[in-house]
Amino acid sequence: MKRKHLILPGIIFLLGTAFLGTAVARELTDQERTVVCKLNDVVEEAGRDGFDLAFWPVVRKGPARVNAPLTLRLDPSIEYVFVGYCDENCSDVELKVRTLSGEVLASEEEVLSVISFEPPFTDDYELTLRMTDCSTEEGCVYGIGILAPRGVNVPNSSGLPKELAQFELCD
Fold first, then answer.
1. Cα–Cα dist 45/143, whole Å
2. What pTM did the predictor assign?
């Protein structure tokens, strides 16, 4: 049995795992902590209304006016709640839900943008977040949360643990 063809992929796998482990284990910046904790507050509040996270929250850093798109397959029998927020160096976030052809179906522009959305049909939709302004040269941190009613089977959703580790730092 020839095993030489497994050596290079094995090395790449081990290096990739080492780099990923380092990236996951790093400390959050103050701006990342602010965004994560605000998302946690929103998730807790939505939980009182019967909603839970359906997908892993997204927390990233970027310059103002850059779109952060996510493509999602949504089910029309489910009411989704989309949340967008950015750190204290950002003025507002513009959150939009569009068809893949570009038609805007819902939008909100606030410091904390929240959109309740029931898709008209099963399809792929684009959720975009755009920071309207960022006062720091290195960029601002933003976060996106996607929630659905508790107990509903959301197709293609993440299997999330009841308590997310990144939210534990907010207590």
1. 16
2. 0.78
